[in-house]
Task: structure prediction
Amino acid sequence: MLKISLDKLDKLFEAISATKTLYIPTDREDGAAEYRKYESGMKLSSALNTVRSAKDFFFPQTENLVDFKMDGKNIEVIDVREESEDFVIFGVRACDARSFTILDKVFLAEPVDSYYKNRRDHGTVVAMACTRPAETCFCGTFGIDAAAPEGDAACYSDGESLFIEAHNEKGQQFIDSIASLLKDGDTSKLEEVRAKTREILKKLPLAKLTTDNFGGDKLNEYFNSDKWGELSESCLGCGTCTFVCPTCQCYDIKDFNTGHGIKRFRCWDSCMYSDFTKMAHGNPRLTQLERFRQRFMHKLVYFPANNNGEFGCVGCGRCLAKCPISMNIVKVMKALEVK
Amino acid sequence: MNNDTLIPYIGVVTDIRQDTPDVKTFRVVSPEGGKVFEHMPGQCAMLSIPGVGEAMFSITSSPTNREFMEFSIKKCGCLTTWLHAMDVGQQITIRGPYGNAFPVETELKGKDLLFIAGGIGLAPLRSVINYVRDNRSNYGDVQVIYGSRSKDDLVDYQEIIDEWMNDDGIEVNLTIDNPQEGWDGHVGFVPNYVKELDPSINKTVLICGPPIMIKFTLAGLKELGFKETQVYTTMELRMKCGVGKCGRCNIGNKYVCKDGPVFRFDQLGELPDEY
Result:
């Protein structure tokens, strides 16, 4: 496998960013990791993952869909779409790499979402294998191997070198663009590191969590469960879980009057919010129980029903770390699966 | 870049009819004349006034109308209040058509049809009724049972009186909730009127109206011997995208905007009761 010495990462990033916009996870002043546009001297974060997921790159929190000019009774529609620039997201973890294939099932299904596809076409995902998974990690529950991430290309570190391999044509083009920096390397130490990572994964507190009892055929069983009341009782409806979730994809469309015209935006939204389903004539989900249930039923039952058993969760653990009342999908799964 | 369904077309409002005190019917054509797009009965469109709002409305005109589309809209929120205040000549944005349709060319073909509507619930059914009238030989007996709070609240009353009631091909039964001066027709709620009329259980039923009306009418139909597999309805939920991506109208594994809005009651029974 091709490799580059870890002490030459700066050179690697310079080479990538010379031809394409590069984003890497880097540490903020407060220590939290976030994706930033690479600039010379920027260091790759050593954190396990970014606070926010990587979904922003393809499905940004806010985006301008279309503009309108209003002139008396007349309306002009202005298509504001532009071809995206080519970009590389480097260091995407296995969980987030899988989240893109889940988002693809929504946004690339007919009719294709041109905004999402534009970015997807121009973005190259270079994933990074995990070596130190955290106790909130449970990607294995969804068949994801943290030591062998998906993405267009993947990187693996053995502590000395970074090994890179392509998974598709886009990944190969990426490797070709940095070929002069890479040389063939012996992967024997890498295999040891990977084996060690997989040993850690097996010992994680959530390693035994399975989806065996969930899926599209469990609709009425789980919808009518008496557990929802207790589970949702403390939910604040803050939507933090939704916003940090790499697979949550519900959105709102809202107009903003700039004074010179109307800009129509698409923004992330949350099914946990009280006005999500509110209409002029009423609201079919009046209580937080119903809204809470919707989010988890969608991930564990409705999404797999429509997507050949694929779940709407990648086990990244962000909701476990961020929920202010410590409620999360793992607790929901454990509570529901007790027969 | 390819067209995106989220980027709307322009429609021009060429006629506004005050149907009831709170329902107006808007006629919409493209700026070049003619329809903005084709549809099938039961499908919907997203109408918007940029800066005010965008919402899903059923297309009340029949696709057999080659010249324009019509929308019967009840004034009940921000956007609909704005629409009710606008004048002829106003441009709006329109995108669609969205959703499935009543199966007029498949399951409903050759069947005796019973339409049951309450209030503004006539709007989506009017598209089917006029489609059936324009393709009359493809269907059996046609009966329409329609009720409203009062005579003044009957949507499309003029068309019903002038056209449907003079059409030998369909039987129309109207009712209003309470007695009213100048009304010598039936008085009473729709569910009870349906039971009184005791329609043949061979008919295929298309029903739309307030949830409470649908609930009691369906119970009445079952008492008469109708099965859930012969009753269709059309649903309404909040929507943003219209193509099953924004997540708002998700019930169970269905998206009302793309898998609906038309459902048969046996299909509806498989979904969680969240509508």
Q: What stands out?
A: DSSP finds six helices and 15 strands in chain B.
